[in-house]
Write a structure and sequence with these properties.
Number of helices: 10
Low-confidence stretches: 1-27, 220-225
Shape: globular
Mean pLDDT: 83
Strand order of the largest sheet: 2-1-3-4
Order of helices and strands: HEHEHEHEHHEHEHEHEH
Distance between the termini: 62 Å
Length: about 300
Amino acid sequence: MRMLRACALLATSALIGVGVTGCSGEAASGRPRIVVTTNILGDVVENVVGDAAEVTTLMKPNADPHSFEISAQEAARMDAADLLVTNGLGLEEGLQQHIDRTASAGVPTLVAGDVIDVLPYTSEDAAGADDPHFWTDPARVIDVVDALEVALLDIDGIDAERIRARADDYRGELAELDEEMSTAFAAIPADRRALVTNHHVFGYLADRFDFRLLGAVIPGGTTLAAPSAADLRDLTDAIDDAGVRTIFAESSQPDRLIQVLASEAGIEVDVVELFTESLTEPGEGADTYLTMMRANTERIADGLNP
């Protein structure tokens, strides 16, 4: 019944000009369809699923999860999914209308933000909103894997034994990553564990590994906001008071604003690029979640250690 429903949805989409070719191709394989919104979650899902299902990740490498858009064909894939996996917590701002539509249509959906211990943004300008950047804490990603395993085992035709084995293996890799990060950050003196970035993205990392968040160049929780002159002055004062000499710019956004901040502070600072909200293309330094987090750990430790 689920496969028939998927075919009907795709056929309807083609009739209204969406441009989908019908139910040949993916459906012909006989495997369930999983659609994932962000590429970080896409990598996590692919590690757990393997070839037990066909995984489509909507967000392209090096994209901004707050503003990326999808094609009509990709929207139709969401409608035909056996499982839709989303980040939630307001992250996929440009995609929310599609997520709401598929939920209303009854597409089974796993919202990662619903299965973790959620933190609010630490900044007042975010008005206490939930922070969606949970993946900076590997322990919370393990929580997502636990929930993903349950959701996958509920799909007709899934290879349950294979899913269980792959989920166990990936949990082991995440636990190893968590231990590596703990060891690296423990070597940073407590008075130097202060993070400044170009927008609020490290709340979960700070909570897990005992960092202080001095602030962010872009206020609130979205890259679609913009700083005021007062925002820059306040953050400049905090940086100067804390004696911070390294600030971090995320790879999904240009670092122009954070370079302006460094100039406005009137002090000599290093600007270090981190991979935060998107994976990269292969060979660009962060093409998997594990690679991204290890690269960030090394750069943060190098930047903050004496």
